[in-house]
């Protein structure tokens, strides 16, 4: 059986999960290339997983991948997304925050249609997309998402203050829409944008973020209210591993005879 060619954008921890899962979970794919910001690290990744280290998106696309999976950054999606689709590859996106920009989101959908390619949104640390999308089809809905984090996880962000390390109980540090949240925390709230895209939209999905004393990991509570359907979804993840594995799940679903 001819294998599908897979390329990766990003050579960090999450891409390691995807590459490491190929033999056991994704035998239908062959990893052909990887593109990263640091070429030395990219070469080390390529050597470990027996693929080509690429220094540009053009070099990566010259390998003719059937699917390109991104596990890098919002900037990578915005910089490379159109080129990937126009270059003949389907695109698996993990940094969903890029699509909080509704103009960019519509533009990417148009490019995918014109080139007869697909954009697959990996769920990251969130779940319940099927329920969210179905509820949104049935009637107008309201959507909100609450997030609990540790103070340390917000370091090097505009929300961080030294006093947060001494919080007792919990303290709200953000309240607004998911579109506003992604501008402040471009690498922290991809799951919120994914939820919004699957339901009420980034401009209409409310979000609040609480810092919780001695908290480890990430916890999200999604609430959907509609005329006929309402749901609460609670998801906790101790580490970011689930984001990498969600890319594996998308790739596995693509080739599976049964699609969930």
Task: Explain this structure.
The chain is of the alpha/beta class. The protein has two domains: 4-123 and 242-255, 3-Layer(aba) Sandwich (Rossmann fold), CATH 3.40.50.720; 129-239, Dihydrodipicolinate Reductase, domain 2 (2-Layer Sandwich). The protein contains nine helices and eleven strands. A six-stranded parallel β-sheet has the order 3-2-1-4-5-6, with helices on both faces. The protein has a five-stranded mixed β-sheet with strand order 8-9-7-10-11. Helix 5 links the parallel strand 5 (90-93) and strand 6 (119-121). Helix 1 packs parallel to helix 9 and helix 4 (74-86) runs parallel beside helix 5 (102-114). GO terms for molecular function: aspartate dehydrogenase [NAD(P)+] activity; NAD binding; NADP binding; oxidoreductase activity, acting on the CH-NH2 group of donors, NAD or NADP as acceptor. InterPro entries: Asp/hSer_DH_NAD-bd, Asp_DH, Asp_DH_prok, NAD(P)-bd_dom_sf. Residues 10-121 form the Aspartate/homoserine dehydrogenase NAD-binding domain.
């Amino acid at each position: 059986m001819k294998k599908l060619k897979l390329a990766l954008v990003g050579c960090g921890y999450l891409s390691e999960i995807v590459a490491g899962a190929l033999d056991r979970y994704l035998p239908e794919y062959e990893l052909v290339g990887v593109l990263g910001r640091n070429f030395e690290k990219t070469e080390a990744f390529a050597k470990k997983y027996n693929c080509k280290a690429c220094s540009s998106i053009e070099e990566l696309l010259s390998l003719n991948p059937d699917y390109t999976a991104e596990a890098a950054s919002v900037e990578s999606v915005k910089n490379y997304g159109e080129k990937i689709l126009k270059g003949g590859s389907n695109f698996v996106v993990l940094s969903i925050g890029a699509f909080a920009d509704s103009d960019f989101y519509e533009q990417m959908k148009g490019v995918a249609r014109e080139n007869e390619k697909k954009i697959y949104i990996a769920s990251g640390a969130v779940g319940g997309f099927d329920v969210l999308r179905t509820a949104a089809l049935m009637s107008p809905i309201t959507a909100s998402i609450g997030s609990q984090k540790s103070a340390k996880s917000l370091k090097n962000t505009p929300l961080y203050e030294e006093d947060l390390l001494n919080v007792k109980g919990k303290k709200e540090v953000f309240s607004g829409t998911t579109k506003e949240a992604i501008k402040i925390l471009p690498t922290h709230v991809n799951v919120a944008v994914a939820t919004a895209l699957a339901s009420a939209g980034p401009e209409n999905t409310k979000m609040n973020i609480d810092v919780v004393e001695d908290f480890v990991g990430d916890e999200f509570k999604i609430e959907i209210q509609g005329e006929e359907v309402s749901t609460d979804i609670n998801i906790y993840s101790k580490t970011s591993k689930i984001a990498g594995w969600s890319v594996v799940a998308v790739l596995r679903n693509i080739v599976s005879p049964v699609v969930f």
